[in-house]
Design goal:
Blueprint lengths: L10 H6 E6 L3 E6 L6 E6 L12 H22 L3 E5 L10 E6 L21 H16 L1
Antiparallel strand pairs: 1-2, 2-3, 3-5, 4-5
């Protein structure tokens, strides 16, 4: 795939998420929905819409970043299940959701999309959640 310009985060992703860290290939971001521990990985590749838009080395780096995000959620929250998905129906820029799920969460056992309204973090919750996740990444 030829890339037409620099990587730019899609405005909807910028609005719905908060930056956590830069990983090997991806921006790691926290979804602004306190209903679930929910991370979003956005590969820093211009115009990438599909996994197949990445070259083999980029796909391997993405897999490593997904592993990092999944282990971060597992270690921090001990969820019953981890959901990992790349849908892109609403935001076509390639991004991967890593969501910690519990059997008593608001959407269980269905997918999280469209089940209950997002519950944005309060400013205090946001500062605490970001700091704890960044510390765990460093740890």
């Amino acid at each position: 795939m030829s890339h037409s310009g620099p990587y730019i985060l899609h405005p909807q992703l910028a609005e719905d998420t908060h930056p956590l860290a830069l990983l090997g290939l991806c921006e790691l971001r926290l979804m602004d929905d306190a209903n679930y521990p929910w991370l979003v990985l956005v590969p820093r590749i211009a115009d990438a819409r599909e996994l197949i838009d990445l070259d083999p080395d980029q796909r391997r780096a993405l897999t490593d970043d997904i592993d990092t995000a999944a282990r971060l959620l597992r270690d921090a929250f001990q969820p019953y299940k981890l959901n990992i998905a790349a849908l892109g129906n609403m935001v076509e820029q390639l991004h991967i959701h890593v969501i910690g799920r519990e059997r008593d969460d608001p959407a269980w056992p269905a997918p999280v999309w469209g089940r209950v309204a997002a519950r944005p973090y309060t400013p205090e919750q946001l500062v605490t959640r970001i700091a704890s996740l960044q510390a765990a990444l460093q740890g």
